[in-house]
Specification:
With 144 residues, this protein is an alpha+beta fold. Helix content is 38%, strand content 31%.
């Protein structure tokens, strides 16, 4: 009988190690959060308080007006129906600007294999960037 692979509990140190192996540049922000920043988005790696949920949360930098919300919701519904992750939603800031946030989550209560975690991180980062490119093209089509 083949032994089961060892499981790990994701933490900042392990995710940093995986990002290094994937050759993905990352930083630690002023609050101690692990992040990937580009000109258009910032991806954070979040660990649940009870250690049972691992989340990759992407904040897309472009602000939108409330007038853009119907167009955005149509596009987001299309993306969310056709794509597993990230699930993207609108967030209204105190100043009234709309921002987009994408979440990808993995239940890790019993742990996950390191290989699975590496694969998930690589896919989630790639799809967070893919969403930005998809939405940019979608909005250009809608408004063009």
């Amino acid at each position: 009988m083949t032994p089961s692979p060892a499981v790990v509990q994701p933490d900042r140190e392990l995710v940093e190690e995986i990002l290094d192996e994937l050759d993905i540049e990352h930083t630690i922000d002023t609050e101690g959060d692990l992040a990937i920043s580009t000109a258009h988005l910032t991806i954070f790696f979040l660990f649940g308080k009870e250690g049972d949920l691992f989340t990759v949360r992407t904040f897309y930098d472009r602000p939108y007006s409330v007038d853009d919300k119907p167009m955005l919701l149509t596009a987001l519904n299309e993306w969310n129906a056709d794509t597993m992750w990230p699930k993207v939603y609108t967030f209204t800031q105190d100043n009234g600007a709309l921002r987009l946030v994408g979440d990808s989550q993995l239940y890790i209560g019993a742990g996950v294999t390191r290989e699975h975690l590496s694969t998930v991180i690589a896919h989630w980062v790639r799809f967070s960037i893919k969403f930005y490119r998809w939405l940019t093209g979608r909005i250009a089509f809608e408004t063009g």
